[in-house]
Amino acid sequence: MTAELTGLHAVVTGGASGIGLATSRLLVERGARVAVLNLDPSGCEPPLTGLHADVGNDASVRDAMEAAAAAFGGIDILVNNAGIGAAGTVEDNSDEQWHTVLDINVLGVVRATRAALPHLRRSTHAAIVNTCSIAAPAGLPQRALYSASKGAVFSLSRAMAADHVREGIRVNCVNPGTVDTPWIGRLLDASDDPAAERAALNARQPHGRLVTADEVAAAIVCLAGPAAGSVTGTVLAVDGGMAGLRLRPVGI
Ligand code: NAD
To answer: Is there a contact between 137 and 212 (Cβ–Cβ < 8 Å)?
Structure first.
């Protein structure tokens, strides 16, 4: 049986770790050829094609996107996944931190999409999936800057979907809850009591545990493939119910 994505070519930003790496591997498993655009692509082993790119730098993104398109003979799928975090209330981050996080998380999506669009327009199965976050729809404490950046990604995804639907390019996003990736590992390591912090994050999710990178990858790959040919402008929550469910406290 031919795999669902056979013959399709994908680019995943931030695909060398966590959600991006799980997505890149699943895309390959489903038959796609995959280029990973990452600050440090050295961990990307064949069949992944690792390319150095900084989504904060337009020339770097354009160069890597052109290299991927030339290597594959086109691009059908773009996963805008590279992102960075920030902690604090609206009082806590400097203007410089605001500019940096918005530059990577929001303009990074803009740069990669701009560079990929000429190639996506030539595809008959063009799709973009943006990695957004539960921080877009839910108010999380100590995440003012990060939430603002992901709120922008959410709105940008909808606007892009409207702009490009008549060109045959679908745009969707996924909203993961807290996902067990190296990113969260770093946050836990930096906390005073990593075990207690992990337990608190588990408890915040209605299904009682962190989301896995493979679960987010499955959602991204589903939205990216031709089977989702009529799905555009949507957000798919992969958050154990965090955005939509209101449970009674345990035992009450
Ligand atoms: P991660 O740190 O494990 O992986 C992120 C990857 O992006 C790394 O390989 C990193 O090198 C790369 N990257 C960072 N800045 C880059 C840049 N300027 N140019 C190119 N590559 C860059 O993180 P993750 O947890 O897999 O997160 C991936 C995405 O998922 C991010 O957009 C994040 O905001 C989002 N997200 C994560 C969680 C979570 O709990 N882990 C939850 C919701 C959303």
So the answer is: no
CATH code for position 109: 3.40.50.720
Q: Which residue of the set 125, 146, 169, 238 is catalytic?
A: 146
Domain count, the chain: 1
- pLDDT tens string, the chain, 252 residues long: the values are 789 999 999 999 999 999 999 999 999 999 999 999 999 999 899 999 999 999 999 999 999 999 999 999 999 999 999 999 999 999 999 999 999 999 999 999 999 999 999 999 999 999 999 999 999 999 999 999 999 999 999 999 999 999 999 999 999 999 999 999 999 999 999 999 999 999 999 999 999 999 999 999 999 999 999 999 999 999 999 999 999 999 998 887
Answer yes or no: is 188 within a domain.
no
Which residue minimizes the CA distance to atom 44 of ligand 1?
133
- The whole-angstrom separation of Cα 157 and Cα 151 is 10
Active site residue 148: no
The answer to whether residue 243 is domain-embedded is: no
Contact 83, 14 (CB under 8 A): yes
Q: Which atom of ligand 1 approaches the CA of 19 most closely?
A: 26
- Asked, for residue 166, whether it belongs to a domain, the answer is yes
Across the chain, the runs of DSSP E, i.e. the strands, are 9-13, 33-38, 49-52, 77-80, 126-131, 169-176, 235-238
Write out the residue range of the structural domain in which residue 26 sits: 9-179+211-238
> Does residue 4 lie in a domain region?
no
